[in-house]
Amino acid sequence: xxxPITISGGGIIGNYISLRLKKSxxxxxxxxxxxxxxxxPEGIRTLTLNNHSMAMLKAVDLSxxxxxxxxxxxxxxxxxxxxxFSSEDISEESLSHVVLFNDLxxxxxxxxxxxxxxxxxxxxxQNLNKExxxxxxxxxxxxxxxxxxxxxxxxxxxxxxxVSLPNSYSEYKQTALTFIVDVKGADQTTAYQVFSERGxxxxxxxxxxxxxxxxxxxxxxxxxxxxxxQDAMDYIKDNLSYFESKLKVSLALDSEIxxxxxxxxxxxxxxxxxxxxxxDAAHSIHPLAGQGIxxxxxxxxxxxxxxxxAYEKGISINEKAVLKKYEIRRKGMNLLMLKSMDFFVNTFNxxxxxxxxxxxxxxxxxxxxxxxxxxxxxxxxxxxxx
Length: 386
Prior knowledge:
The chain is of the alpha+beta class. The protein has a single domain, classed as FAD/NAD(P)-binding domain (3-Layer(bba) Sandwich), CATH 3.50.50. Helices cover 36% and strands 29% of the residues. The protein contains ten helices and 21 strands. The strands form four sheets. Strands 5, 6, 13, 14, 15, 16, 17, 18 and 21 form a nine-stranded mixed beta sheet that branches. Strands 8-2-1-12-20-19 form a six-stranded mixed beta sheet. A hairpin with an 8-residue loop joins β9 and β10. 41% of the residues are buried. Mean pLDDT is 87; it is low at 352-359 and 366-373.
């Protein structure tokens, strides 16, 4: 079996890459360890796609139902600081688009089914440091002659382990709770974020199930010391009214609760010979800005751009310089985003009175400065590419 690109991981990033390369007549094979399920249930997990990410999906003929966000309100829960971001600030129709994770995943599975080998995974990679092309050996013994192995297999990347790339990792000592609420009193095109002693509380509109519902998704990051082994449901019941009061809305729990610990990681190098790490396989950040999926898609965009450019010029796609360009263009940007998120987490979680006053003043000042607001919005919307 032969394929110029072998993709480890049939998730959103891996499937997008396969679709994008197919449009340029570059063959790929996706190796996915899960079974071929015809359709995932609706689920409660959502993704917030910026304008550039949404445009990328549309360019590969993918369409998914979304809730458009035209305005974002950010509040300091312990003070009066606030900032509003609006699509009008950058002359765009929307700031971002909220989609159901399973809706997007199902559509990608459907579109990439013919290129996917399910219920399998890469067990070893032969000829890694030789002149001849590498050979991928799957768990069932199948051999694939290839040129590039794209690691799109998440934060516990199998291919990263195979080539022993060095990785840095740290825990935020926080737990994220995510669930769906039925909201009264909120504009369906507005998202909210509150920084407080009770955690970082994000409220995002969801695609409408029917005309009678006004569903939002909550992502609530809480210090482990604050949660203190308390049952998630009890913590929500004890503290949800605080955010109702702050946002002047009514919130009614309308789903199960997902709970997971928060951490980040970043690989020192994204490439090792013919192996390249992309998306969560290479890095992960705090979810407070909802940028994880957008950074991953930005990686995929630049990776595909460099591969297609080399292919069209008649350059071998596994030339070291081709993958190195991808790493150079993405690693610095991703590290900057990781450090920025860490700064925000530390600043807004601090109990230091002077830092509280500073963040309160900072939100008010940025809100009054259109140039700075527009810069932040354009960066978050994915317009700033390298």
